[in-house]
Amino acid sequence: MMAKRQPRTDLRRLLELLSPVDRRVMAHLWRAPGAEVEALLAAMSDPTQIRAQWERLTERERAALERLIAEGGAMPVAIVQREYGGVREPGGFEHPRAYLDALRGPATPTERLFSLGFIFRAHDERGAIYRIPHDLLAHLPAVPPRARQLTVPPADAPRATIPATPDRVTPLVVALLVLAYNGELQTLDDGALNKASMARLARDVADPPDLRAVRREADWPLLAVARAAAVEAGLLRRGSDGELRPTAQALDWLRAPRAARMRQLLEGWRRSSLDDLTLLCGLRWQGGAPFTLDRAATRRALLDLLASLPIDAWLRIDDVVAAIRRVDPDFQRRDGRYDTWLLYDREDRLVSRWDDWDLVEGALIRAALRGPLHWLGLVDLDDAQDRLRWSPLGAHLIAGAEPPSEPPALPLIVQGTFEVLCPAEASLYARFQLSRIAELKQAGSIAVYLLTRGALLQAVERGIDVEAVLRFLREQSAGPLPPAVEYTLREWASQAGQVRLEHAVLLHAADPVMLTRLRADRSLDLAAAEQLGPTLLRLPPGADDEVAERLRRAGFGLRDERVDPHRPLDERDLRALVTAAFVYARVCTELGLSCDVTPAMLSRLARLVPPRHLDHASETARAVARLLESRFNSDQ
Predict the structure, then answer these.
(1) Which of 230, 204, 226 is nearest to 217 (CA)?
(2) Could you give the angle at the alpha carbon of 530 between the alpha carbons of 528 and 535, nearest 5°?
(3) How far apart are CA 470 and CA 479, in angstroms?
(4) How far apart are CA 343 and CA 341, in angstroms?
(5) pLDDT score, position 636
(6) Which of the 8 DSSP states describes residue 443?
(7) Mean pLDDT of 618-631
(8) Helical (H) or strand (E) element with 455
(9) Whole-number percent of the chain with pLDDT over 90
(10) Which residues contact 355 (CB under 8 A, 6 or more apart)?
(11) Mind giving me the DSSP string for 69-115?
(12) DSSP-derived 3-state class of residue 547
């Protein structure tokens, strides 16, 4: 009869991987009858022997083991060895003699635990780790998880403060959305704005930097944070041509309450690929940032730590940095390694050692508090920027306090001079929409816009109806409009289309007799063609391919000279595109989703195809909607 195979437990697997020498040392320490795996497994699985080994540990050795238990049974090798000493291994010495000389010294707590088999080397997503075998962990005393609460003494309230206000970031984001709507934002390969786009932006915001000192986006950190947060928050989308365009989600953001808007931007900054060490701290990488640097995870870990700060007290920023170093110094380098980064400061000094923690991690914490978290309206600062306090909005978004009250939005003021005054407290939605129909004349606490004929005609050309403009101005100004303004806007809108530019396909006949013959031929169906001259017809949009085919079938000698580089799609492709757009818009409407296909876009697409294709597109959209409804009802 075959012997029953023993289950391959975690401890058994780890013991099998040890060298015979390591097993003999372990057998001696555990007083096992032999160095075989079975003998060691029996000794190390005995609760009595485990308890005895625990009692024989020194205070430092027990503290090291308790630390691992508190961390869930595993910690990066670098952190364990930094706090409790290394393990003397032959491979770490230049020659055997040096190794033997080192063995004369006492074992570190880490080495003692390693020799006993309380910890083994392994790997996880952080890299090399020490971990306690699951079999042993179940028999060791329970230790509560390590507290990550920051304990920071309160500081005296400052005499002068720099209150947190979202007005640092939100006007930039609105200006970005306006310029993106106008197609005026172009990015470089890394996603940063180019110099021309920054110049346009500086023209439309209050207190822009001196552009002579701005060569790239990194020289305007506030803009870099605003742009990256807006992209990651889904308000802007970068096209394959590098142009930034607003998304349908942007309108929802503009209408949202302030706390919801800032939460979205905070999350966008947290997820972004911005390198805060270079952008905010003035450091630089040699050879690029290491693959081990996870910027989003770093910001999440930092925000989680900051969430434990008191919400109603002033604190010294240096005390906050010191508290984070005590509680979780490796929030940025989860592997605990401080010997792999090639990071240099402004004086070109390498600052990657553990002793440089305050120059890297400390600088990052200070920069995040004084920069993005202050710009987003979450942190109040003193005038020297040495102390901080959560603003009501920051206490809500970071520490989970009650949301602050929503400040009332001030109305626009439409004057008879065609100027529209937009106070800083006006709704972001009103400011954005006003920028689409008027020209900004003066930025500041009260921005001044001017309703002009050119701006209105551009809006009408984009598909904005003048009645919608008037309705918006009435709603946002909370009162009737000056009669002259209302009359003039309608008058200007009536002038739209007086001069048109459009693509056309022309049919040239050799002489008037040939043209008469062509029009008389019923098989060619040229009744809808517009006659422009004795030998010239203008064909209806989208009908040129069919007319060309009929001419060939009728035996007329045709020379096809159509060249339209702006319309590379043929009629079949256009039919499919228009149908897809109609279906997408209908599905979004049925499901209540935001839709990138606007009514104005559908109107423009409709001009590209004959009416019968529009009927096909509309019927297909209705059929898809009915199918979705039936599927949903059947699932219910």
Answers:
(1) 226
(2) 125
(3) 11
(4) 6
(5) 55
(6) -
(7) 82
(8) helix 453-461
(9) 55
(10) none
(11) HHTTSEEEHHHHHHHH-----GGGSSSHHHHHHHTTSPPPHHHHHHH
(12) helix
**Cβ contact 300:266 at 8 Å:** no
Q: Is the pLDDT of residue 141 over 50?
A: yes
CA distance 291 to 340: 11
Nearest CA to 152 among 309, 366, 306?
A: 309
CA distances from 408 to 426, 427, 471, 475 (A): 8, 9, 21, 15
CA separation (Å) from 338 to 84, 292, 330, 343, 609?
A: 16, 12, 10, 11, 64
Assign 3-class secondary structure to 273-285.
CCCHHHHCCCCEE
Cβ-contact 150, 160 below 8 angstroms: no
The predicted pLDDT at position 606 comes to 79
Neighbours of 405 (CB within 10 A): 9
At position 210, the amino acid (one-letter code) is D
Whole-angstrom distance, CA of residue 9 vs CA of residue 16: 11
CA distance 428 to 422: 10
List the structure tokens of 625: 């909607």
Beta bridge pairs of residue 75: 130
Which uninterrupted H or E stretch holds 537?
strand 536-538
584/248 Cα distance (integer angstroms): 14
Residue-wise pLDDT for 567-586, tens only, equals 566 777 888 888 898 888 88
Give the integer Cα–Cα distance in Å for 485 and 161. Answer: 44
Distance CA 571, CA 544 (A): 9
Helix (H) or strand (E) holding 508: strand 506-508
- Count helices and strands (H / E) in the chain: 30, 18
What Cα–Cα distance (Å) separates residue 585 from each residue in 64, 239, 360, 618, 623? 61, 21, 49, 11, 13
pLDDT at residue 594, as a whole number: 67
What mean pLDDT is reported for the chain? 88
Phi, psi at 552, each rounded to 5°: -65, -40
Q: Are 75 and 129 in contact (CB under 8 A)?
A: yes
Range in 196-200, 272-276, 479-483, 623-627 with the lowest mean pLDDT: 623-627
Measure the CA–CA gap between 345 and 341, rounded to whole angstroms. 12
Beta-ladder partners of 124: 127
As a whole number of angstroms, the distance between CA 232 and CA 494 comes to 41
User: Distance between CA atoms of 28 and 33, rounded to whole angstroms?
Assistant: 9
Task: Quote the pTM value.
Answer: 0.76
Instruction: Take residue 30 and report the two structure tokens written for it.
Output: 């555990």
What sign does the CA torsion over 8, 10, 12, 18 have?
positive
